[in-house]
Amino acid sequence: MRRRPIFLISVLCFGFAFFYIPILSMIVYSFNGSRLATVWGGFSTKWYVSLFSNRQVGAALLLSLKIALISATMATILGTMAGIALARFRRFKGRLFFSGMVTAPLIMPDVITGISSLMLFILMAEWIGWPATRGFTTITLAHITFSMVYVTTIVQSRLISAERDIEEAAMDLGSKPWQVLWDITLPVIFPAILSGWLLAFTISLDEVVITSFTTGPGNTTLPLLIWSKVKLGVTPDINALATIIVLVVGIGVVIAGWLMNRAEKQRDRDARLAYRANE
Amino acid sequence: MAAGRHSRLSEWFNRRGWSDIIISAPYIWLLLFFLLPFLIVIVIAMSVATRTPSAPPFGYGGDNPVLNFAGYARFFEDELYLRALVTSIINAFVAMILCLLIGYPMALGLTRMQSNWRNILLMLIILPFWTSFLLRVYAWMGMMGKSSWFNRLLTDIWNMVTPEGWAVSSIPMMHSNFAVVLVMVYTYLPFMILPLYANLERLDPTLDEAAMDLGTRPFGVFWDVTLPQSIPGIIAGGLLVFIPASGELVIPTLVGDAGSPMIGRVISDEFSSSRDWPMASSIAVALLLLMVVPTMIYSHFQTKAEHKPENRP
Description:
B: 76% helix
């Protein structure tokens, strides 16, 4: 019989308390009736009411969602292409350089990505006149660039671990290589592409530093709005907004994880049934 | 004619065009929007700042119009920059060590859980990844403020355990390097736990049991058997905390001490407030050079870890 690891369990409890107490505290204080953010003044939902009547928040959310949708979709297309290139095409010119360029943005500090993108956009406007103003276009371009490499990482690792029997069988039966890619490889890695899109979408929705550098006047995304308010200190309406965001994202991620897990299990079951039928 | 051209096009596409498109689209994108900005930073670091309000505030001139190292020279002359660099390294390093001290037992504890519990707890560790980074920093701003329940609780405990002369009305946590490190540990702890867990989960439990059967005490088993095998996980987790923490901007801006800023904040201030592009670029290049070493160590251990399973029978 193994001894119960009391020390490990107590550190785990401490760790989870450390993870979740600040968030719970923020949620509790979002229902605070007092104007002072940290002094309890009775239960109230007035901050939620004032939040929903705030036009600025709605406009910022809409802009954020628009940028996240477009940039995640573009990032998924480009990132999947890069993942396929790195995992399936063994040799092409500049492959090593390409794989370096795919990993470098992952460790690049946001500040540097932010100022270098802004310098590029200012110089582009100067030299070729496009994009003429900074705002939606420049934010989206920057978001595509940093989120596509996350998609590449996910797709690439899925492709490397995927079984290649079916692809080889299709090749032997005379399919053209791009048909194999389109009809077999892409459906097989579809869950990875989907989770790549989801990741790109959430990091775009959450990004603040690079966005703050590449935005222009009048283009405030939701994180930028929160950033500008939070710099001034803790306020109850940000507590309310934060609570809504944390709950929506949290529930969304749990449901997405559950659905993906179920789909995976279903696929495993189907595969096993298919094998058994063949025997 | 049109049909002929069409068939030539489809022949090209079938033969190699499809793969050329797949390679070149992301390649060109990254060259244009990642490499080019990066090269611009390197070039501008060598230029001279100008004070024109509208045009990009840099130019070429002076004694060395092409290779101007004035920005780099100032980096070493002005104490502010080197101090910011050292502050960043110390903060990131302390955060990394604390993450290791908390994260290692947590990861080890996870491997000892039953699998249904383990999956729920792993989910709870990954969940903060998906929720807003900014809001997680903000949550601590609410906890650390002078009149918050958490600060009052800590103040009461402090006043109870220390002699009367040391009594304080509140604990000054906000706007200090302590706050920066605390929030860094909070936001980057999952980066430490997950690679460590992946590493510890693969270890063979029969080795532990064999050492136990031979009479080694639990701590001895940990020290002689588990710890040496988990060094790749420690290095991976440590660098995944250290690398982003050293270039952090959001945390030092919100909870940090403006008197001893971190390097990320200095870059941002030079760029936005002083509009000194060449100086900001020089510091950016210096920060990247600082990060090259840990990154090389990381990729070295990653490739070694990837090749390891092949050596096993």
